[in-house]
Fold Histidine ammonia-lyase.
Amino acid sequence: MSQTPVDPKSLTTVTVGIGALSIEEVVAVARYGAAVAIDPEALDGIAATRERVDELAQDPTPVYGISTGFGALARRHIPEQMRAQLQLSLVRSHAAGSGPEVEEEVIRALMLLRLSTLCTGRTGVRPVVAQTYCDVLNAGITPVVREYGSLGCSGDLAPLSHCALALLGEGQVRVKGGQVQDSASALAEAGIAPLQLREKEGLALINGTDGMLGQLCLAIVDLREAAKLADVATALTVEGLLGTLVVFADDLQQLRPHPGQADSAANILQVAQGSEILAGALEEFKKNQVQDAYSVRCAPQVAGGFRDTLAHTELVAGRELASAVDNPVVTKDGRVVSNGNFHGAPVAYALDFLAVVTADLASISERRTDRFLDPARNRGLNAFLADDPGVDSGHMIAQYTQAGIVSELKRLANPASADSIPSSAMQEDHVSMGWAAARKLRKAVDGLQRVLAIEILTAARAVDMREGTPATGTGAVIERLRQEVPGPGTDRFLSPEIEATVALVQDGSLLAAVEGAIGKLR
């Protein structure tokens, strides 16, 4: 699997133009607040395309999106004096979301990607529309968007409409994570003039797959790290269970040449290499154990399949980031043409694929953790890794927590994209449900991070209970963990220790510790 070319945290400014954004640039703006700039050449292209829209607006022949109604109402010709109201009514009526508020980073990703499509010059908006979108992003103004409202076709209509409404000085927003306030006041404080829409512009602001794509980009970055952490967790588990590293040899992986499998196995070897604990137990393993259980021995096959699926979704995301998703679209030769590029199926499938492999990677992690708790399988450790079994329960209920999360992840693996509910008086009779796929994947990513954290916490406790010195890689993980969580002992309030480990997983501290000690993982 390819390495992350740039750390999103290191990007301070992202330029939006005719070319495609990268996954890392999307995350830099969405999660880390990087500034946004528009390439002047893109503004020139937007202006040139707008001239064609203005021409068609004067044509007596109805043109969809410019002089007609929308969706099932597309047959109605709208007179010129009503067209500004047409675009305003479209945005207002489509801002119909309901439910909990969507996370700020998701909305910022969505907004950046809509701006990127506007900057392709294929949507027919005026340059001021793109510039206003850019200014709102840079001012840290984030529209309040609700959980429900997108069917993933025609794009993420309700979420994008809430964002468009904010550009008009209507609806509610937060500024840099502050309290909810009216958009009009937030724009005024930032010195941004509210937009007044003209032909085609309301439609261009709401007709895209930006919400689901933004969440895919965020998930990809998180799951890249999770893939590495799964290998780190496996290495810790092999060491804590006195297993063998022989099965991870590269020549064995090349017999089945999946690239993700080879990378995963190489990482496990790199992290566990030089373990005195494993060296001291080798002869006993050969004599009495012979081979490890599937959850340990087959870890690269499962984690490798996860990595290869992730690589496929990166390919999909890259194609989407290079797309101009709108309907109708203004072509380079000046035609205004209806199309189906707003359908979210390609992104929805990728999101669902990731939910499936995320659930399975968590499942095998939970099975490894469970082996530590059973004295019949943990090769000489106390039951449940308890200090005094019977008096103490050790990590008994930590595994329950893992099991509960894994069960939820299996439910979240049920594909959203296999469902479709017709809408718009049967004009939109097949939809992708890509937004729903993205929302459940976000929950799945969080669940996987928590499951891996509990495996690492448990395996580190087991390694500390063994005699001998751990490997440099595993030792670095344990050392960083022990800065937040104490080692083995009598029972303590366990939830804060789990949450502290989750935080180290999610902020990258554990991965940074191991890579700082032994070099970059694949």
